[in-house]
Amino acid sequence: METLERCYEKLARNQIYNARIYAVVAYYAEIIHRPVKFKDAKLKHLFSYDYTLVPFRWTNTDAWFKLSAWWGSDEFKRLSAMKRNARLSVPDAQNHGGSRSTARTQQCLEETYGRPFSLIESFAVHMGASKDVVAQGEGNELPPIPNERAQNHLDNYGDGMKNTYGLEVQWVRGPFDAQVMYNNTGRKPHGKFAIADGAIDSSTIQFFTTAHPSQPQSAQSSTQREV
Q1: Domain spans of the chain, in order of start
Q2: How far is 133 from 138, CA to CA, in rounded Å?
Q3: Of 88, 145, 148, 209, which alpha carbon lies 20 to 30 A from 194's?
Q4: Is the pTM of this model over 0.85?
């Protein structure tokens, strides 16, 4: 059931993402009579009021006005630009870390930017996320990772942290919980952890009899190995 809910959540996000772009297409075609293609509409932003002029018939009016307010906000435009820059910075990357470990990536980031980096931030950069965008992020913001499997692991870890500690938990830049990571991502077939293998003290984790636990479980915080 939880897997199905995650699928529905991802589908809903994709539909909302596409709805904004189709709204831009509709606005240019119906309001200013200057058609644009879907791929070009991705890069265009409207004011909140402009989105309200082209609602879809299948949407709830209140929901559409709330989406319009969000799409037209400076915060949405900032996040949109940040994610686009991240995608462009690593268009074909899968893992920029090569043979370097997440722990070594963490050390390099701290030396470069002069501030502490969490294990999750370091893992994201290790798997191809833009280090500049990660360094400039706040709260639980992370740019997309070009490696789909790594992105899924991060999403599952974030969901597990929220289920364990509440929706307001700072799971990106806060303390790393190895037990929550294991409960929600399991282990790879060759025995390594799905996130930040080599930087985790496995003695702090309660293991399951199977490589991939069937149901995520809440857990208390475990310690991160000093690297």
Answers
A1: 2-72, 102-204
A2: 10
A3: 88
A4: no
pLDDT at residue 159 above 60? yes
Tokens 């636990």 label which residue? Answer: 213
Q: Which amino acid belongs to residue 2?
A: E
pLDDT in tens, 34-83: 999 888 888 899 999 999 999 988 888 999 999 999 999 999 999 888 87
**Residue 123 contacts residue 152 (beta carbons within 8 Å):** no
pLDDT at residue number 3: 56
Length of the chain: 227
Q: Which of 163, 112, 167, 173 is nearest to 142 (CA)?
A: 173
How many angstroms separate the CA atoms of 46 and 189, rounded?
Answer: 47
The Cα–Cα gap between 21 and 13 comes to 13
Tell me the C-alpha distance between 227 and 210, whole Å. 28
Region for 196 from its dihedrals, namely left if φ exceeds 0, alpha if ψ lies in -120 to 50, beta otherwise: left
How many angstroms separate the first and last alpha carbons of the chain?
Answer: 38
